């Protein structure tokens, strides 16, 4: 079912992929569990891109329930919440991810949400924390964080 779910995703058959991935039973196999939650996370991100926020939230909350130590679940759910303007909720999810591992990308997303809520001080701190880490931001994010910091400090 997991292979079929991946194939359905590649063919943009997201509802079919979701049915297949949720029907899969990894049977306690850790590797298959990881594959299943990875596919679910990818589907959640696809739903977010399609602005199917309720579907995205539902699937990503299930990812977190199944894999509470998976940082990606919190990051993806936070992005879905932020995309809906639910920045306070998004920050809580990003923070849960940070509690598992300090990552530049999570600091960056927290900073964006603080900025969207008009909290310049916390946005500045978040962008600074993100930029202080040598890795974890792609080139576009690093450039954006630098530009946002300049604007916030101007």
Q: What overall geometry do the principal axes of the alpha carbons give?
A: elongated
Number of strands: 0
- Sheet bearing the most strands, described? none
What structural category do the secondary elements indicate? mainly alpha
Please give the share of residues in helix: over 70%
Detail the poorly predicted runs. none
Q: Give the count of helical stretches.
A: 9
- As a percent range, the share of strand residues is under 5%
Average of pLDDT? 96
> What oligomeric state do the depicted chains represent?
single chain
Distance between the termini: 54 Å
- Report the radius of gyration as a whole number of Å: 17 Å
User: Topology as H/E string?
Assistant: HHHHHHHHH
Give structural notes.
With 154 residues, this protein is mostly helical. The chain is 79% helix and 0% strand. The protein has 9 helices and no strands. Helix 1 packs antiparallel against helix 2, helix 2 (14-23) packs antiparallel against helix 3 and helix 4 packs antiparallel against helix 5 (71-83).
Q: Summed up, what is this model?
A:
With 154 residues, the chain is an all-alpha fold. The protein has helices at 2-10, 14-23, 30-49, 53-66, 71-83, 87-100, 104-116, 120-132, 139-153.
């Amino acid at each position: 079912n997991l292979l079929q779910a991946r194939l359905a995703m590649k063919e943009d058959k997201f509802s079919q992929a979701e049915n297949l991935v949720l029907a899969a039973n990894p049977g306690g196999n850790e590797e298959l569990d990881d594959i299943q939650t990875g596919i679910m996370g990818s589907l959640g991100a696809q739903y977010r891109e399609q602005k199917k926020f309720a579907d995205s939230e539902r699937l990503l909350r299930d990812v977190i329930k199944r894999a509470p130590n998976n940082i990606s679940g919190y990051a993806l759910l936070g992005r879905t919440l932020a995309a809906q303007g639910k920045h306070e909720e998004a920050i809580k999810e990003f923070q849960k991810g940070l509690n598992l591992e300090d990552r530049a990308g999570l600091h960056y997303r927290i900073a964006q949400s603080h900025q969207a809520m008009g909290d310049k001080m916390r946005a500045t701190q978040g962008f600074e924390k993100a930029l202080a880490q040598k890795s974890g931001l792609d080139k576009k994010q690093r450039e954006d964080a630098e530009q946002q910091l300049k604007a916030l400090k101007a």
